[in-house]
Amino acid sequence: MTISNKENRRLTLDGRYLAILCAMAGLSACVQIETPDKPIEINLNINIKQEIIYRLDGDAKKLIEQNEDIF
Amino acid sequence: MRWKNWKLGGMAMGAVAVTAAIAIAVPSAMAQRDPAYEAARAAGQIGEQPDGYLGFVSNPTPAIRDIVNDINIKRKAAYTANAPQGSTVEQFAFATGCNLIAKTKPGEKYKAPDGRWLTRDSGPPVRDSRCP
User: Fold this and answer.
1) Is residue A37 part of a domain?
2) Which terminus of chain B has a lower count of CB atoms within 10 Å, N or C?
3) Which residues of A touch B71 (CB under 8 A)?
4) pTM of the model
């Protein structure tokens, strides 16, 4: 079984169409992502503090109940 | 003999209950606000701050200044003695401040996160976003 010239050409054409289609799809759905030149810093101080405040809430309520004269 | 034992047991239990009741009642009777402190709060001369301490809303009289300074020293001591492991005195004071502002009664003053003195109304107070 050998692929005839005609068939071969069709395959090449199909390949070309596919390439064009891909290029068009690529153009239409073009999302450019620029990487920042500086390293990304995430400041977790605020979150950690809020977490601590939440954790201390029960103890704070107890302190108020047990020392009504100063609160 | 059996009955007597039961009776004695009951009396002992009763005595324990009475002692416990006194033990609970006495400190709570002692732990009342000073009337002058209560009056200054109600009059809006002093208010609660987000940091867990009292502040002066208006220029205080020497008597009010003394009361507030005394309470703030006692609060600092209470925060220091009771701050749970892994937290600082400031964090524990701040967490208490969140609760103290939440507990203010309508008409009392409290300091908003932006530093303004506000009067508590029937709605929720303006507190720091980190408050629970």
Assistant:
1) no
2) N
3) 70
4) 0.65
